[in-house]
Write a structure and sequence with these properties.
297 residues; mainly alpha; 71% helix; disordered C terminus
């Protein structure tokens, strides 16, 4: 009876230990360290039953004898001693209980070690994936911030008009890259890394081209108009200047450039917000809308 009870306890105990180990390390992988430690501490009594089944079966036997009374085997008249026989030298005593206990222990340890290794690798992959994602988002945001700084600065637009001109090949490529990176950021199936890399390349190419060209591609009269408009806008942005003069300078500047350069609406809005001037009634040409902006300068 004892051996049967020990066998049942061994099987059930091993199954319980494996289940607890799986649940504990799953929680540990999710960062719930306290819950995982509590579960492992709770498994200690079960481990005691698995590794020392004789102690529990003995307690159960004593408990049954105390409350239920001695069983027939305990009260039976001892039989007379039987003559001893020499053991058969060919017979082999196999300690099946010890073998099963050892095998169960080894299987449990192997399962725990394998699970721990798997969860550790899984956690490392998650951490690396998160770091890579954060790095990509930081790179993406940097380009968005640089581009936002341009389209909200009307003086920068006058210095680099090609970067606001959607007929320029480099600018068209940049606009497409902005849209692709925005979509890839929210689409789990998209290649976000490739989209961000293309955006960085497109931004550098467009910005470099616009800085190199400046206003040189404009006819001489238009270059003079842009230069004059820039001086007028400097006056309009002077917060210490006369309000009437500032507004007059603003209106004259916008009239000079409205047919020459497509001024982004973000730059016009920022200028109006900075100078607190009333916008003129005419509408400015529309350009690409940003997906993300930085703090206005």
């Amino acid at each position: 009876m004892h051996e049967q009870l020990q066998w049942i306890l061994l099987v059930l105990g091993n199954m319980a230990l494996i289940s607890i180990a799986v649940a504990a390390f799953a929680r540990m992988a999710r960062g719930e360290t306290g819950a995982a430690v509590s579960m492992l501490l709770g498994a200690v009594p079960i481990a005691g039953v698995v590794f020392f089944p004789e102690a529990l079966t003995g307690l159960l036997h004593d408990f049954a004898g105390t409350f239920l009374g001695p069983n027939d085997a305990d009260t039976a008249t001892p039989s007379p001693p039987q003559p001893k026989h020499d053991p058969d030298p060919a017979a082999v005593n196999i300690p099946w209980g010890t073998i099963v206990s050892g095998a169960g222990l080894l299987l449990t340890l192997a399962a725990v070690v394998a699970l721990l290794y798997f969860l550790h690798r899984h956690h490392q992959r998650r951490v690396k994936d998160q770091l890579r994602r954060t790095e990509l988002e930081t790179r993406h945001d940097q380009v968005l911030n640089d581009y936002a700084a341009f389209v909200t600065d009307i003086l920068a637009v006058l210095d680099r008009p090609a970067l606001a001109d959607i007929t320029v090949a480099e600018t068209v490529r940049l606009i497409h890259a902005l849209d692709a990176a925005r979509d890839a950021r929210t689409n789990p199936g998209a290649d976000y890394r490739a989209a961000v890399t293309e955006l960085e390349i497109a931004w550098k190419a467009a910005d470099r081209h616009a800085r190199k060209q400046g206003t040189d591609l404009l006819p001489a009269p238009e270059r003079r108009a842009v230069k004059q408009a820039r001086l007028l806008l400097t006056t309009a942005l002077d917060e210490d200047g006369n309000s009437h003069e500032r507004q007059l300078a603003y209106r004259r500047a916008m009239r000079l450039i409205e047919d020459i350069i497509d001024v982004p609406k973000e730059a016009v809005a920022e200028l109006a917000n900075t100078t607190r001037l009333s916008l003129p009634p005419h509408e400015t040409p529309q350009t690409v809308t940003l997906t993300k902006t930085k703090d206005h300068r």
